[in-house]
Amino acid sequence: MLEHAYGYDDVAIVPGEFTINPELAETKFKIHELEFEMPVLASAMDAVVSPSFAVEFNKKGGLAVLNLEGVYTKYNDYEDVLNSIISSKPEDSTSIMQTVYNQEISEELVAKRVQEIKSNNVMCAVSVTPQNTKRLSPIAIEAGADIIVVQSTVTTPRHFSRSITGLNMTDLKKQIKVPLIVGNCVSYNVALEFMNTGVDGILVGVGPGAACTTREVTGLGVPQVTATLNCSKARDDYFNETGRYVSIITDGGIRTGGDFCKSFASGADAVMIGTPLAQTQEAPGKGFNWGMATADQSLPRGTRVSVGTRWSLDTLLNGPSSTSDGTQNFMGALKNCMGFVGAYSIRDMHKAQMIVAPSIKTEGKFFQLGQ
After folding, report:
1. In whole angstroms, what is the distance from residue 12 CA to residue 29 CA?
2. How open is the CA angle 82-92-99, to the nearest 5 degrees?
3. 8-369 adopts what CATH topology?
4. Beta pairing class for 288-290 and 304-306
5. Cα distance between residue 360 and residue 225, in whole Å
6. CA separation (Å) from 1 to 4, 60, 218, 229, 230?
């Protein structure tokens, strides 16, 4: 039997029974014992996070995640490589990326990139796929990485194969001495099983990103509001049973401040964003973004998209906003929304009431829609 599932455009947040001034809203979040001023992670995409971008983003209070299997750890001089992707014709971009990303990962560069970030006295988070976790994580941790993110299109605690041994998250968590985030998943049962392995955070979302084509290629996906509700319910049940809190991070699909706020009302402790950051002046993609599965040698599940360079990182995150469409000042939007629902903290935002409201974006908007 088919179930209903909801995305950002299907729901609305109900105003609270009391309100607070936005400056009273506290937006900090934690991964294990590490605390961050801003509940935003920058996606581990080569067009979004370079070592220099990671430093700048982390100084602003967020957490940028560097992809340890991309151009930054395959090429010492990566600017020309990035430019070859950026300047390619649309019909050639995927094949060029398949060639570029077919290069071997340099363990020396893995350590070097982590050290470049850590030398600026900021946190360093790095992303690896399950098949490379055992090899690359120890190198990154020894170089100073503070958080390991194990990420693939779909990750589960149990993986069966004739040819490889699946990654045991319980064993991995015992071996590494830094917080561990895993993803991506969309269901209550998978999230709960991950929590029982000892992980510290879970990435939620399959296929919602602007540069991801997983939904088109494989048919997989659950809209982000429902996916976040599923996984946050697992977090709450797990916390009530064990007293250990595992952070839920909604990953992908966020376009506006409204989407941003709805993620937290759905139960997210933080969000991971890619394309909005790729649109900033500081992003290494120079107005382009591409999914990290675009370069898959047999079944690409991403694409290069032209997103434009629109404004600074500060404007996107903290304003001031010069547009009225919600594409700037995400943190301002969140604090105002928290004020409207009477939420003093992110956990208070989880208590906000949401309703199914398919007409929420069009009701009374005749003149806006016509312009």
Report:
1. 23
2. 55
3. TIM Barrel (3.20.20)
4. antiparallel
5. 15
6. 10, 46, 20, 20, 18
Q: Is residue 210 helix, strand or coil? A: coil
Domain boundaries of the chain, sorted by first residue? 8-369
- Residue 363 contacts by C-beta under 8 Å, 6 or more apart in sequence? none
Closest CA to 173 of 194, 145, 204: 194
The end-to-end CA distance of the chain, in Å, is 41
| 295 has pLDDT over 90 | no
Q: What is the CA radius of gyration of the chain?
A: 20
Which percentage of the chain shows pLDDT scores above 90?
79
Q: How confident is the model at residue 366 (pLDDT cuts 50, 70, 90)?
A: low
Please identify which residue in the block is written with the tokens 């294990």: 32
Tell me the pLDDT of the chain averaged across its residues: 93
Residue 119 has a CB neighbour count (10 Å cut-off) of 12
The DSSP result for 87-140, as a single string, is: TS-TTTHHHHHHHHTTSPPPHHHHHHHHHHHHTTT---EEEE-GGGHHHHHHHH
Sequence-separated (6 or more) residues with CB below 8 Å from residue 244: 195, 238
Question: Is residue 162 very low, low, confident or very high in pLDDT (cuts 50, 70, 90)?
Answer: low
Residue 300 and residue 293 in contact, taking contact as beta carbons nearer than 8 Å: yes
Over residues 43-57, the mean pLDDT reads 97
Please state, for a pLDDT cut of 70, what percent of the chain lies above it: 97
- Smallest CA-to-CA distance from 255 within 309, 194, 173, 316 is with 316
